[in-house]
Design brief:
This protein has helices spanning 58-65, 89-98, 161-166, 237-242, 299-310; strands at 4-7, 53-54, 107-111, 116-117, 127-129, 177-181, 186-191, 194-196, 199-202, 204-209, 249-253, 284-287, 313-318, 322-326, 348-350, 367-369, 374-377, 382-385, 387-389, 395-402, 407-409, 416-421, 425-434, 441-450, 454-460, 463-469, 475-480, 489-494, 498-502, 509-514. The chain is mainly β and 518 residues long.
C-alpha cells in the first residue's frame, strides 16, 4: 500500500515536502449491470408508472429516455453509416424527386404522431376496428381516457383534447394514435382513431413487442402502410434535447412500388408499379456523410441530421412530401426544425438493406466487459482490466462517460490499459467493442476516485507538526526508524488531519495511511 510518508530530517520551517498518495480503501457498492443502449447511452432504471403520462411532459421524457425501444440489433437501431449503396441509388433518388412538384423537393418535418405512456394496471377497453380487422391485432386495448390523437395539441387550435378525440369539426386526416406500455414492452398503434361517445374505434390496429424483432405477418399493414411501428421512428422531444436521434426515422415518399423489404411487411403502390427505381416499403435512405451541418442550426435540427447520417430513414408510407414525423410537442421552439426544409433530396442516398439474419442480427456479435467497479486515486494510473471478444476483427475503445475531471488513458484502444483521473469523484468509464458489422457492444465500470492524501510537516523545536489533506475517514499515523517497508509502528489512529509528535535522534520517518472511507 502506498502512503503519505515524511522524513523529519528533511523538514525546515514553512517548507512543504512532497508526499506519496494513498490508495482508497473504502468498500464498493454492489456492482449492478448497467443497461446500455445501442448508442452507448446508459439508460438507468425505468421510472415507476402509476397513471397514464402524455408525451409532452417531463415525466414522459424520463420514461421514454429509459426505454430500449426494440432490441439493440433491431433495424430501427441499426447503424447504416457504413452500408454500401444500392446499385441504383442515384436513379431511385432521381425518381423520388421527379414524383414531387418543384416546390416540394426538400426534406419536410411534420408535427404528426404523439403518444401516451400507460402503466401495467391500465384498464383494457373495447375498440371497434372497422376496416381491416383481418390484418389487425384485435382489442381490447389499454386506452387511457386522455389518449392524444395525431396533431394534438400543436395543430388543433382551441379545441380541447376531448373535442379532438371526437373530431367534432370533422377535420379528418390520418388520426394515428400510439399507446406505449413500458412495463410489458408492448405498443398499440391505430389509424383513423376516434372516440364515439364513450367508445373507441379505428380503421385498424397493430400491437408491437418492443423486446424482440418480431414483425407483422407478411402482407399485413399497421398504422403505417408498410406494416411498421410508428413509435420507433418518431422524432421525440427528449432525444432532440440530448442532441441525437438514436434511431432511424419514419420517412414518407410520394410513390412506392408493389414490394416490401425487411423490415416492412406490406406494400401500397398507387398507381401500381414494379419499377425497381421506385422505392419499396422498408427502403433505407440516409443523409450523405458529406453534408455539413451548420453550427448555427438548432440543437433539434442537429439531432435529427446526426441520426439521419447514422441510422437513416425507413420508407413507411405514401404522401405528398418527402417528410419525417415529429411529435407535436408544444415545448419545441417555433423554429426548431425550420432549416430542414432547405435540405434538397439530392443530399440523400439509398443503401443496401440487411435481412433478418444479416448485419447486426447475424451470428458472432462482439462482447465487451469493462471489469468490476473499482477505486482509484487522483493523479495516479489505475489499471483497467477490460476484455473484448468477437469472431471478426474487433476494435476496443475506452472513453469517459461521465465524471468531474479529465481522464487520460494509457492506450484507449486497448481493453487492458490504465486510466489517470485529474480530480476526485465518481466516474463512469465505457468500454466498447466494434467489429464494423454488428451492433457495438458496450460495458461500463464505475470508478470512485479519492483525492491524493498529501502529508506536510514542519519542525517546531523538538516537535514535528504533521498536517495532511485528502483523507476521508479514519487514518493511522505510523513511524519507522530507520526507513523500512515493514517495520512501521503506530503512533495514533485518528479522524483528524493534524498531529504534533516529539522527535529525537535521527533517521525517523512518518507516514499516514487511510484505513477506510467515512
Amino acid at each position: 500500500m502506498k502512503t503519505a510518508r515524511q522524513d523529519w530530517r528533511a523538514l525546515r520551517p514553512a517548507r512543504i515536502v512532497p508526499a506519496l498518495a494513498l490508495s482508497w480503501l473504502c468498500g464498493l457498492a454492489p456492482c449492478l449491470a448497467e443497461r446500455i443502449n445501442h448508442e452507448g447511452r446508459i439508460l438507468g432504471p425505468a421510472p415507476v408508472m402509476t397513471n397514464a403520462v402524455l408525451f409532452h411532459t417531463p415525466e414522459a421524457d424520463a420514461i421514454a429516455s429509459a426505454l430500449q425501444i426494440f432490441p439493440r440489433d433491431n433495424p430501427w437501431n441499426e447503424d447504416i453509416s457504413r452500408r454500401p449503396l444500392l446499385t441504383n441509388s442515384g436513379a431511385m433518388i432521381a425518381q423520388i424527386i421527379s414524383e414531387l412538384s418543384s416546390s416540394r423537393r426538400t426534406l419536410r418535418p411534420f408535427y404528426e404522431m404523439n403518444f401516451a405512456l400507460v402503466p401495467a394496471s391500465q384498464p383494457f377497453v373495447p375498440i371497434d376496428l372497422f376496416n381491416w380487422p383481418e390484418e389487425s391485432d384485435l382489442g381490447p386495448y389499454p386506452i387511457p381516457p386522455n389518449l392524444p390523437i395525431e396533431g394534438w395539441p400543436r395543430a388543433t387550435g382551441t379545441l380541447t383534447l376531448e373535442q379532438w378525440q371526437m373530431d367534432i369539426n370533422t377535420n379528418g386526416g390520418d388520426r394515428h394514435a400510439i399507446i406505449v406500455q413500458p412495463a410489458t414492452g408492448f405498443v398499440w398503434e391505430t389509424w383513423l382513431t376516434q372516440r364515439v361517445g364513450t367508445n373507441w374505434e379505428a380503421s385498424n390496429g397493430a400491437r408491437f413487442n418492443l423486446t424482440n424483432n418480431t414483425l407483422r405477418p407478411a402482407g399485413w399493414t399497421s398504422g403505417d402502410a408498410a406494416g411498421l411501428c410508428m413509435f420507433a421512428g418518431l422524432v421525440r422531444y427528449d432525444e432532440s434535447e440530448r442532441g441525437m436521434v438514436e434511431h432511424a426515422v419514419r420517412i414518407i415518399v410520394k410513390h412506392t412500388r408493389r414490394a416490401f423489404i425487411y423490415p416492412a411487411t406490406h406494400y401500397a403502390s398507387v398507381p401500381s408499379t414494379t419499377d425497381p427505381n421506385v422505392p419499396a416499403m422498408g427502403q433505407r435512405l440516409r443523409l450523405k456523410a458529406g453534408f455539413i451541418i451548420p453550427d448555427s442550426w438548432t440543437k433539434q435540427e442537429k439531432a435529427v441530421l446526426r441520426g439521419l447520417k447514422k441510422y437513416g430513414a425507413i420508407v413507411a408510407d405514401n404522401g405528398g412530401f418527402f417528410s419525417i414525423s415529429v411529435a407535436p410537442d408544444p415545448r419545441f421552439p417555433a423554429n426548431a426544425f425550420n432549416n430542414l426544409t432547405s435540405i434538397s433530396i439530392t443530399n440523400f442516398e439509398v443503401v443496401q438493406t440487411t435481412g433478418p439474419n444479416e448485419g447486426p442480427r447475424s451470428a458472432g456479435a462482439p462482447n465487451a466487459s469493462a471489469g468490476p467497479d473499482m477505486s482509484a486515486r487522483a493523479g495516479e494510473p489505475t489499471a483497467l482490466t477490460g476484455t473484448v471478444s468477437a469472431t471478426l476483427p474487433v476494435q476496443a475503445q475506452w472513453r469517459k462517460y461521465d465524471g468531474p475531471g479529465e481522464v487520460v488513458f494509457g492506450n484507449a484502444a486497448r481493453a487492458t490499459t490504465t486510466a489517470t483521473f485529474s480530480a476526485p469523484g465518481a466516474y463512469t468509464l465505457m468500454l466498447s467493442a466494434d467489429d464494423g458489422v454488428h451492433t457495438v457492444a458496450y460495458d461500463a465500470v464505475q470508478v470512485t476516485v479519492a483525492p491524493v492524501l498529501t502529508l506536510r510537516g514542519s519542525r517546531a523545536g523538538t516537535n514535528l507538526l504533521l498536517n495532511w489533506t485528502g483523507s476521508a475517514g479514519l487514518c493511522v499515523v505510523e513511524r519507522a526508524s530507520p526507513l523500512s517497508t515493514t517495520n512501521w509502528t503506530t503512533v495514533v489512529v485518528t479522524n483528524g488531519t493534524n498531529l504534533t509528535v516529539p522527535i529525537s535522534g535521527t533517521g525517523v520517518f512518518f507516514r499516514v495511511r487511510q484505513l477506510g472511507g467515512s
